[in-house]
Structure formats: C-alpha cells, structure tokens
Amino acid sequence: MTTASSADHPTRRDFLFVATGAAAAVGGAAALWPFISQMNPDASTIAAGAPIEVDLSPVAEGQDIKVFWRGKPIYISHRTKKQIDEARAVNVASLPDPQTDEARVKSGHEQWLVVIGICTHLGCIPIAHEGSYDGFFCPCHGSQYDSSGRIRQGPAPANLPVPPYQFVSDTKIQIG
Ligand code: FES
C-alpha cells in the first residue's frame, strides 16, 4: 500500500512541476522579448517561411529594432529627418551600388527603413546606428552602410538588401 501510494504521488508531482515550469518559461520569454512575441506568429509558422507582421508604433524616432524573418535578421529603423536628408543628399552615381534612397523605402513612409541585416561581404551582422554614415557598421572587416543601408566604404560589394514588405496600416508592416 505504501509502495502504491508513493508510486502515484511522485508521478503527479512530476507532471505539475513540468507544467508549471513550462508556463514560467513562456512567461519569462514574453517578458524578455515583448516585441518579438508580439510581432511574430508561432515558431512553426515562421519556420515555414510565412509572412510576419510588425507593429511599428512602439519604435521611437531614431530607434532601430531587429526582428527575424525566415531565419534572417531584419533591421527596421525609424529614421530621423536628418538621416533621411543625408541619405537623399548623396550623389547616387558616386555609390559603389548606385541606388536612390527613394527606391529603398516606401513612398509616404520615408521614415522607415527595412533591410536584411546581413553584410554583403561575408555575411556578418552589421551594427545599427554605428559608423561614419549614421547607418550600419560591420565590425568584421569594416564595411560602412549609410542611413539608407547603402554600402559607402569597406569591402562589401552591395547595399543591404530590402526584403519584400508592405504597409498594412500606417503603423504596421507585413514582411514576406
Ligand atoms: S562581413 Fe562585413 S565587412 Fe566583411
């Protein structure tokens, strides 16, 4: 009788422990990554390459956020007027990978830059808001991208790619 009782109780306790632990882990992750949990669908949907929606309303002017789409880091920059003006004042013909700022953002939403955060040199992750052009700096071999994500200096041959995305409302985009 004692044996039967002790065999039942640990089983039940183990189940409760696991269930509580899982709930705590989910709660902790949500607290640590409020943006990510709010913006992304569940993991299996993301793994299948589904589009993700990103709410831009919490991103203040001058801030950048990073989300993941199809396993790739995506930088979303809420550009200041100064950053936009600097990007548009550049002589496009002088760029290693000539492209206008207008061609890299959505008309009417010029303040938002959305780029894939993978250096076009050897694939490192550049750092946002760093470097000489108030854009992105890749610490691996010193490539510098401007506030439009265009390569300006260093060994990278091409601009940071713009992923497919669209505005689904004034403050929300869908990537993919
Ligand atoms: S990987 Fe970025 S500069 Fe080489």
What do the pLDDT scores average to?
83
Q: Which regions are unreliable across 5 or more consecutive residues at pLDDT < 50?
A: 1-37
- Helicity level, as a percent range? 25-40%
Secondary structural class = alpha+beta
Strand content: 25-35%
Distance between the termini: 61 Å
Bound ligands: FE2/S2 (inorganic) cluster
How many helix segments? 4
Order of helices and strands: HHHEEEHEEEEEEE
* Number of DSSP strand runs: 10
The strand line-up of the biggest sheet is: 5-6-7-8
Oligomer: single chain
Largest sheet data: 4 strands, antiparallel
Radius of gyration over all CA atoms, rounded: 22 Å
Shape: globular
Structure commentary:
By secondary structure, the protein is of the alpha+beta class. It has helices spanning 2-32, 34-39, 43-47, 81-89, and strands at residues 52-55, 64-69, 72-78, 112-116, 127-130, 135-138, 143-145, 151-153, 165-169, 172-175. Strands 5-6-7-8 form a four-stranded antiparallel sheet, with no helix packed on it. Strands 1-10-9 form a three-stranded antiparallel sheet. A three-stranded antiparallel sheet has the order 2-3-4. The longest helix is centred in the N-terminal third of the chain and has 31 residues, at 2-32. The model is unreliable at 1-37 (pLDDT under 50). The structure holds FE2/S2 (inorganic) cluster. FE2/S2 (inorganic) cluster (FES) binds at residues 119, 121-124, 138, 140-143, 154-156.
